[in-house]
Amino acid sequence: MGQMIAKRLIMLFFVAFGVTLIIFFLSHIIPGDPARMLVGQRASEQTLQQVRHQLGLDQPVWVQYFTYVKGLFAGDLGISIRTQQPVAQDLFVFFPATIELALLAFLFALIVGIPLGVLSAVKKDTGWDHGARVFSIAGVSTPVFWSGLVMILVFYGYLGWFPSTGRLDMDIAPPARITGLYLLDSLLTGNWAAFKNSLWHLFIPAVTLSYAQLAIITRQVRASMLEVLGQEYIRTALANGISGPFLLLRYALRNALIPTITVVGLSFGSLLGGAVVTETIFAWPGMGKYVVDSISYLDFPAIMGFTLIISIGYALINLIVDLAYYVLDPQIKA
Amino acid sequence: MKSRVFELICILVLILALTACSGKSAQSGATNQAAPSTTDNTAGTTSGAKDSLVVAMTADEGTLDPAVTMDNAAWKITYPTYERLVEYDGATTEVKPGLAKDWKVSPDGKTWTFTLNEGHKFADGTAVDAEAVKFTFDRILKIAKGPVDVFGVIQEVKAPDAKTVVFTLKNNFPPFLSTLAANYGGIVSPKVKEHEVNGDLGQSYLAEHTMGSGAYQLTEWKKGEYLKLELNPNASVKPALKTVYYKIIADPSAQRLQLEKGDIDIAEGIPVEQLGGVSALPNVQIVQQPSLFVDIAYINSSKGNPALKDPKVRQAISYAVDYKAIADSVQQGYATQMRGPIPQGLWGHNDNAKQYSFDTAKAKSLLAEAGVSNLTLDLVYSDKWPWWETEALTLQSYLGEAGIKLNLKKVAYATQRDMIDKGDFDLCLGVWSPDFADPFMFMNYWFDSSNFGLSGNRAFYKNDQVDGLVRKAASVNDQAERETLYSQAQDIVIDEAPYVLLYQKDYLLPVSKAVKGFLYNPMLEGIYNVAEMSK
To answer: Span of the secretion signal (chain B) (predicted)?
Structure first.
């Protein structure tokens, strides 16, 4: 297993390299000039050239790329053109907010999606099954910007139970930074006020985001469960008098989860990337909002940094998925 | 029996799962009730409190360094945190004393001498003296980013004594005084040198901190969430608002709800189509004033379709448009047709200038006179402004009636800027607003043929006589004389029609009725005179 992890990590390095290459050259094909954004559109040619020079944008693209990659090895993601701060530092600020939102949404999706899928399979073609289908399909086909607004309208506007935007109330100090995840940090430091407040802020964005992923998980669990339930060994087990729920959880669900994991892994990846819309609606200070602002500013270093982090995230999730296979079914070889 | 138990377990699992969610919901709801202090506090210290103001803006700030930023969103923060030698006076575009109590200009216009007021201090406690002023301008020139374009005219700054600052200009530049009142004229504490990294003159530090002598200072910036201003303890003024929050809420509906519930006091991001609903809210008023923000179409007069070289064709385009209908359809009527290139509210505006009216027959006959038929033109625009789509379609329909076929080319904003810079269009939608209060911002930028491209003359218009007039107007100090010269130039360019002068937008801002003392200055759009406001 150690060997497999090592191999995969080396692969990851090449993936990251490929990603930098593609994104770097793609983003330099886009017409437009980040120096122009910085100096304002009425700037004279001379100032423009000067700033281009300062930012190294007057170098040939491959030289710029080489400089960038050289920086990467030193852990330097470059300086953001828009914020004038190191990109690594900016992402360090925004990344935990996105992760926290995605993780909680993921948790919600699992907690609701797996039982719902099991229920659908066991109660195939009954009202339960149809109800679960309608519920989950509604989630995947409702655009997040709409369901998010409805959530805000109901829970903030009418009921007043939850705040509509932000990570914490403006007068509550965030917990001391350990991981950057407010929930975790406030638990670790015993800061209950911050814990409650951040959970209270996280709730509707996370539910909104998870609802969009629910259908995928529910449908996958249902399909795999049906397949497993129809197999010989389940019938044998039944014949041997192993009772329903035990059989269901110990044998059927365990086996049904193996194909589900791939889908779940991908679903977490898309939660990360798909958080952009959710972050906009709920004014959630995550990477999504950061990268959208960066794109409109043609802030190459920031766009690159974001893409790199996300692609490495995807690759790591894939690795975790494979490891999970391994744990669930040792027969699968790396 | 077995299947019964099994069913039961399934249902239990499902219920458990659901309560895991709603349990949190109940818990959070309970939090809300059990700890009312938390929520009431929020309301108490933010919008509800008499001494604090919450402004909702749509995007986070980039750099706040006055020597770097050319993004007027940054003004929101820098204007109340820095002071300038001169300031815009109330709601007018005239300047009044700021850090400087008076000033003199030499007859040749090249030497400006300012005498500083006493008693102004930076938030860090240092006094604002002539050295600080000199340091600020030297810093801008050394950093050489955006603002250097405006202040590049400065040859040298001297500080003969603590109260006197002398600027020597390379050439006479009458708008100089007005430029000092703009954002980049904000005087920075020389202590910023302590925060220098790799010789950046403190750029990285000032990108996210303020070091000015304004009534406020930036005390907290939660990236992506909000910026918080608190009082500068050393300022001579004592504003009523002790705290100002600038909260980032991109979504207009979320802004509207929070405004309705009193969680924010000013909502910047509500589009004009939704203002009707907002004005019906009992706790909200809508500030409406004419702005200096204009919406125009560039007619590419030298690099576009050859037919556009003929002024008659350009006039025909200007006659083909129903100005009132456009203002109504894209701005819900909250806009006024322009009269000449200098908008109403800025000195130099000519209230008697010729205005094109909607006259399709005249447009057709002008086209016939020019000998042009079956003219097909490309109109370039982007999604930068939400109303451009409708505006483009409306123009297409009106020009169509006059016999000009308009192809709509919608491109990305970055691409549009690039195309404007290269002159790669026939017609193109554009907006403009002045950085400083001088007709120079319109006449010299738009019409001087040395400014071809994105930097100003986006119609690629060249007329030697106009060049002469606007250049002369930019080199004499007498305002009356400048006004005459600009007026002459205006008559020519209106007649030659290199731009379709569509409309100047109204400034519309939903503000809580609790807020008092907000003064709108067209030069300071999106900037609040927080030091004079109260609740």
So the answer is: 1-26
